[in-house]
Amino acid sequence: xxLFKLLYQIGLIKPSLRQVKRWTKQRNIENLCFALDHGLYNxxxxxxxxxxxxxxxxxxxxxxxxxxxxVKPVAIESAKSLKTIGISVEVENEIVxxxxxxxxxxxxxxxxxxxxxxxxxxKWEKRDWVEILREQLKKPMRR
Length: 143
Known about the structure:
single chain, 143 residues, mainly alpha, 8 helices, flat
C-alpha cells in the first residue's frame, strides 16, 4: 500500500488533477486506477484520459467498471480510453449498452422537464434566473 492510499483511507487527502498529471508523466498506472475509482468526477475524467493515452492494458477492468459510472462524462471518457487501448467484442457491447442507457436517461429528463419545470433546474439555468432577478431588483419599484 502506498503512502497516498494510506492517507486517503485516513481521510486526509483525495486524488487531484495535479497528481493525475504527475502520475501520467511517471506512467504510474496503479495510482491512475486508484484515482479513477476514488477521485471526484473531474479527476476520474482525467485519469481515464491518461490511461487511454498510456494504453494501459492492466487498467482494462477498472475502465470497464467506470462504464457504469453515475457521471456521463466519466463513462464516455472510459469508453474512449477502452477503444484507444483495443477491446474485445464483449466490451464493445458494454459500450453500446452504456450509450443506450444515457440516451434513455436524457429522454426521461426531457419528458420530466416538459411535465413540470419546477422539478429540476440545471445550474446553468439557475444562473440565468439569478441574473434576471438582479436586473429586476435594480429597477425602481412601482407605487
